[in-house]
Amino acid sequence: MQYTRSNEEEREIISKGLAQNKSIRTIAKELGRSTSTISREIKRNVSKTGYWAFSANQKAKANASSRRKHKRRLMQNQRLRDYVEEKVKQGWSPKAIVERLIIDYPHDMSMRISHEAIYQYIYVLPRGALKQSLIEGLRQERKYRRAQKNGTNRGNTRKNQWNAVY
Questions:
Q1: What are the DSSP calls for 116-152, one per residue?
Q2: 88, burial (CB in 10 Å: exposed 0-12, middle 13-18, buried 19+)
Q3: Are 94 and 141 in contact (CB under 8 A)?
């Protein structure tokens, strides 16, 4: 089953349940949700005065919108972006760039980034000369980034894999 965040109606039921001194387990059964999901929702949105559905919805909306604003470190830090773009154009791999950043800027935490963030930055750029030059700088000049295919059959369980080996 895939986890989904609570919606407004569920938050209202949680708020009423807590006001009636119901246990988290009871509230979870009423909603048909896991106890841990309800517990996580309460911990995430509780305030000094308790859990309130309205304030929980406000927090959830604020958090969701902040995730969508593309606040990537490379977009915010011009010095880091220039450094990364220069190294990629020179043919450095993102992993090598990350390792070199640690050597060149040992005490400057604003000059830290993961290799995955570098790849995401490059492939999210709109079409144009900058994106093209950065992709050419990568060792594998793919226009698009795709998920790697898994060589094993997805239906295999550990038991089946164990039997296949022996």
A1: HHHHHHHHHSPSSHHHHHHHHHSSS--SS--PPPPSS
A2: buried
A3: no
What is the secondary structure of 60-93 as a DSSP string?
A: HHHHHHHHTT---HHHH-HHHHHHHHHHHHTT--
Global pTM reads 0.44
**DSSP classification of residue 26:** H
Residue from 95, 142, 100 nearest 115 by CA: 95
Tokens of 47: 């305030």
Confidence band (pLDDT; 50, 70, 90) for 26?
A: very high
Q: Give tens-digit pLDDT for 70-115.
A: 567 777 889 998 998 888 888 888 888 899 999 999 999 889 988 8
Closest to 41 measured CA to CA, from 1, 65, 2, 8: 8
Token readout for 96 is 């090598």
- What is the C-alpha to C-alpha distance for residues 129 and 134, in angstroms, rounded to an integer? 9
